[in-house]
Amino acid sequence: MPAPIPVPAPVPVPEGFTYYLRGDIGYSWVGSEPGFTESGNLFGTGPAPFTAAAPFAFGQAPQFGPLATASEDIFFGGIGMGAYLTPRLRGDITIDFRGKQGFDASSSYAYATAAGDTIAGVVNETLRVRGTVTMVNGYFDLLPRGGFSPYIGAGIGFVYYDVDRYHYNQETVIAGPNAGASQTVAAASKDNTWGLAAALMAGVSIAFDHRWVLDIGYRAQFLDEVSVDLTPSGEQSKVTLGDHWEHQARVGLRLNIW
Question: Which of 43, 14, 59 lies closest to 207 in space, CA to CA?
Answer without folding.
Answer: 14
